TrEMBL record:
Residues 457-509 are annotated as: Disordered. Pfam families: CP_ATPgrasp_2. Residues 73-449 form the Circularly permuted ATP-grasp type domain. This is Circularly permuted ATP-grasp type 2 domain-containing protein. Gene3D superfamilies: 3.30.1490.270, 3.40.50.11290. It comes from the Bacteria. InterPro entries: ATP-dep_Glu-Cys_Ligase-2, CP_ATPgrasp_2, UCP005522. Residues 477-509 have a biased composition (Low complexity).
């Protein structure tokens, strides 16, 4: 993980097209650039017609935007995915056990494996949850684990998203777009399906319904409304699962039971997939000025009459200051060695770490412990002296608010950009569902840094998405032929202006 580490290209290696990309390489060589551009335009029209947007506020103009979609899929072989998914399941199990312990006996804190102040003084810690066991003992029902790759078998966990991870709608709609635009190409690969995710999500939510619910559990998605950046996703998932999407005023609590207002009268709600922050859930418990939540919701929750997914307080598990201790959680709760590695992380609140970070700002990535979306971040190798001086002052003033990580030579995949097909850096957000059992739909959301030289994959920072194909087989590598104009820039590695060592993408969409 040094600056001289070569970038791993997921398509080519040692004069060969890697097995998962062999068919794609042939397709790219045989497809004129103009045909690819037409398909990209068709994909854009398709997403516009469907209405897949995300919102960026505070920048002026129309906040509703399309996330750019790249039509060249990112591909993983079956063995690669199986190895990765085992590590994801292990990690999410440990995170849930940590949350249960953090709000219970706090055994891991008593054992000195995690500093108690990191949990008890964490702004995401909810004392209201202390001593309470959620239905099924699950805190994080839907987790999005951000993963980056630096080699053929080298996957690193970049972030854990345990509160309200977004992006699954782009995973599903991206696959649907590829099936429409390239049916022949899709048919030529044995691709593991993702279309059953809404069904898996619904079954996961139903599995944690309160024991006293009558008959078939009624599920609803609680959204803050149309001004939320992920509102499209809320509506999309509700439609796919056949459940209602509701806002706070659509619900009320009576005798510690949650009801939904309908045209035919009140209907009891047993499980709420909430897509609003803890602070706004219940004005009687959290922010009294909130008009987004439901008065009395927490009382109904604690009475065992409704399940909330994800549980309030789950945010301590994805705090960036807690992240370095996840491998220790795995050892403590599961008695196993971590299958996936963390990116080495410096905690600026530690004097020695802080001194190192301040000395090496030019080569590190500095992040806010509570930051997201690629904001509040310094990419040292691409920063100015003025920017580094500004961050040094911030770190000295509030060291507990910052962490730092070394740069990683992130893998690249072929991507259609203005100059042709060129390598671009990617990360991956698989979605893990945890109820009575743990479910992982093969693939996830691949996010790609579309700008030349860009290191940040977040949609709010100019990144795009790709369909992620997990193959049902493990195709063999094939000799790389002389590159066509379409594939030349990809086969030669990073394009002009890109360094061989790049840093990781960051934060949620």
């Amino acid at each position: 993980m040094t600056k001289t580490t070569p970038t791993f290209d997921e398509m080519t290696a040692d004069g060969l097209f890697r097995g998962p990309y062999a068919e794609i390489a042939r397709w790219l060589a045989a497809t004129p650039r103009e045909a690819l551009e037409r398909r990209r335009h068709e994909a854009e029209l398709l997403f516009k017609r469907i209405g897949i947007t995300f919102a960026v506020y505070g920048e002026g103009g129309d906040p509703e935007r399309l996330i750019p979609f790249d039509i060249i899929p990112r591909i993983l072989a079956r063995a690669e995915w199986e190895s990765l998914s085992r590590g994801l399941v292990q990690r999410v199990k440990a995170l849930n056990l940590f949350l249960l312990d953090a709000y219970g006996a706090q055994e891991i804190l008593k054992a000195g494996r995690i500093p108690g102040a990191l949990v008890r003084d964490n702004e995401a810690f909810r004392p209201e949850m202390t001593g309470f066991v959620p239905p099924g003992g699950v805190y994080t029902h839907i987790a999005g684990i951000d993963v980056v790759r630096t080699g053929a078998s080298d996957f690193w966990v970049l972030e854990d998203n345990c509160r309200t991870p977004s992006g699954v709608s782009y995973m599903l709609e991206g696959r649907e777009a590829m099936l429409r635009l390239f049916p022949g190409l899709c048919a030529a690969h044995h691709i593991a399906p993702v279309s059953h995710y809404p069904e898996e999500l619904l079954e996961t939510l139903k599995s944690v319904a309160p024991e006293n619910c009558r008959g078939r559990p009624r599920v609803a998605i609680l959204t803050p409304g149309s001004f939320n950046s992920a509102y499209y996703e809320h509506c999309f998932l509700a439609d796919e699962m056949g459940v209602e999407v509701v806002e706070g005023p659509d619900l009320f609590v009576e005798d510690d039971v949650v009801f939904m207002k309908t045209t035919t009268g009140p209907r009891r709600v047993d499980v709420i997939y909430r897509r609003i922050d803890d602070d706004y859930l219940d004005p009687r418990v959290f922010r009294p000025e909130s008009v987004l939540g439901v008065p009395g919701l927490m009382a109904a929750y604690k009475a065992g009459n409704v399940a909330l997914a994800n549980a309030p307080g789950a945010g301590i598990a994805d705090d960036k200051a807690i992240y370095p201790y996840v491998p220790e959680m795995i050892r403590f709760y599961l008695g196993e060695e971590p299958l996936l590695s963390n990116v080495p992380t410096y905690l600026c609140e530690r004097a020695d770490d802080r001194a190192y970070v301040l000395e090496h700002l030019h080569e590190l990535v500095v992040k806010l412990t509570h930051g997201s979306g690629g904001y509040g971040m310094l990419v040292g190798p691409h920063s100015t002296a003025e920017q580094r001086a500004d961050f040094a002052a911030r770190i000295k003033a509030k060291p507990h608010e910052y962490i730092a990580q070394p740069t990683l030579a992130l893998s690249t995949v072929p991507t259609l950009v203005e100059s042709g097909i060129a390598p671009r850096h990617v990360d991956l957000r698989p979605f893990i569902l945890c109820g009575k059992d743990v479910r992982v739909v093969p693939g996830g959301l691949t996010r790609v840094a579309l700008r030349e030289g860009s290191l940040v994959v977040n949609s709010s920072q100019g990144g795009g998405t790709k369909d992620t194909w997990v193959l049902e087989d493990d195709p063999a590598d094939v000799p790389a032929v002389a590159p066509s104009p379409q594939t030349q820039s990809q086969s030669q590695g990073p394009s002009k202006g890109q360094s061989q060592s790049q840093t990781q993408g960051t934060a949620p969409c």
